Amino acid sequence: MIPTPDLSHLNSKDFRNIYEPAEDTFLLLDALEQDQDELRALHPSICLELGSGSGCVTTFLGSLLKPSLAYMVTTDINPHAAIATMATGRKNGISIDTVETSLVQGLLPRMRHSIDVLCFNPPYAVTPSSEIAGNGIEVSWAGGIDGREVIDATLPFVKELLSEKGIFYLLLVSDNKPDEVVRLLQEDGFNAHICLQRLAGREKQLIVKVTRRT
């Protein structure tokens, strides 16, 4: 069993500015751990997390892949999250490079077809569209209409980022119409299916696993 990353360097003041790991985070960790043999056999060169928050997911993935020399990189538009992600990596002995940017902005074309493991726990809460702008903690949850606006804006880039052997893990909730998201990914030429799901209170959380068709 891979331990949850040590976040003792972060406190309640930090979590006023960045997303604190919760049930959705841990479901994503469980999906990665469930696939640990597959991920290690992949021998990934580059792993990318979009919207890294505290850095918990990428740090966990880096620990899972040890002693792999995979390059761990994250993005987050929130400057507090960028700082926290690097600090979490250091605390747990994982080297992480963080790009302070919105989603994939600035990564293409340089990282085209280069990402072997892609993770995204997106802002999925149903909110007014106006709430998805900004660069503070609100962008970690505000998803706009159906909680899908940020998700839908990101999906077209998956084909550009993912390597031929790459795997994409996307967290969704039932409000996001996950069956529709799976269908959109399949229509875009991917294998996509729900690989793990769990109830968190009244909210159903799901992980969609995506690979290229061979």
TrEMBL record:
GO terms for cellular component: eRF1 methyltransferase complex; nucleus. GO terms for biological process: methylation. Keywords: Methyltransferase, Nucleus, S-adenosyl-L-methionine, Transferase. InterPro entries: Euk-Arch_PrmC-MTase (IPR052190), PrmC-related (IPR004557), SAM-dependent_MTases_sf (IPR029063). Gene3D superfamilies: Vaccinia Virus protein VP39. One of its GO terms (molecular function) is S-adenosylmethionine-dependent methyltransferase activity. It is found in: Nucleus. It comes from the Eukaryota. Belongs to the eukaryotic/archaeal PrmC-related family. This is S-adenosyl-L-methionine-dependent methyltransferase. It comes from Umbelopsis vinacea.
